[in-house]
Design a protein that fits this description.
By secondary structure, the chain is an all-alpha fold. The chain contains twelve helices and no strands.
Length: 223
């Protein structure tokens, strides 16, 4: 653990439109996509307006990929500290548009006196925590949207625009499992067939396997 405590990630602080710490694709999310709470998502009516908002949110997330995050040195326990610190920020500031550096710094200062050593590292290098938070928040928002679309009584009615976005979600590794689940619910066989190609297809090996399993399930159901 001492190697992790001494590790300097070297991540410089950035800014989005002033003091904002999260990118526009997250700050543009509107309820319930910004909070990603399952109960709120399930209760959202599937009106044309809400579907358009969901589509715009997916496009925004896919068109605005986050910067890469540093890897923690072995044994990787800092990953848990980053998750803990990111969850603390998210609990106190549940809407992405409200996450500013002054507010994040205030949370870090509040938590630091009682933090364990690795937690203190995550708070002292809050920029790394925020990079991981961006990735996690982005993934949660995409998962919420794909799940909401898949639960529609007729998910295939969105396929003209949603199937290509779902393929992008898989190949760009943005919540691939939930995107494949949507493709299965929509009966998007062509998209799943492309994703299932191995060994040199567009998806990772594991995601291609998931797409293959979905195709087999669709065949079993006669779709």
């Amino acid at each position: 653990m001492s190697g992790e405590l001494d590790w300097e990630p070297g991540v410089e602080r950035w800014s989005y439109d002033g003091d904002h710490a999260l990118p526009d694709s997250l700050r543009a999310l509107t309820p319930p996509w910004d909070r990603c709470l399952p109960a709120e998502v399930r209760s959202l009516p599937r009106t044309d307006t809400e579907v358009a908002r969901a589509r715009a949110a997916l496009v925004g997330l896919l068109d605005d990929p986050p910067p890469p995050t540093p890897r923690a040195p072995a044994p990787g326990l800092l990953e848990h500290a980053w998750e803990w610190a990111g969850s603390a920020v998210r609990e106190r500031i549940p809407h992405p548009a409200d996450v500013t550096w002054p507010r994040v710094d205030a949370i870090a200062a509040e938590l630091l006196p009682s933090a364990k050593p690795l937690e203190a590292h995550a708070l002292s290098h809050i920029e790394v925590t925020l990079l991981h938070l961006i990735h996690d928040w982005r993934a949660d928002a995409a998962d919420s949207i794909w799940s909401w679309l898949a639960l529609d009584p007729d998910p295939g009615r969105f396929a003209d625009w949603a199937a290509p976005l779902a393929e992008r979600s898989v190949t760009e590794r943005l919540e691939a499992d939930s995107a494949i689940a949507y493709l299965g619910a929509a009966g998007a066989v062509d998209a799943l067939t492309r994703l299932a190609e191995k060994p040199d297809g567009p998806a990772t090996w594991d995601d291609a396997e998931t797409a293959r399993d979905m195709l087999a399930e669709l065949r079993t159901r006669g779709r």
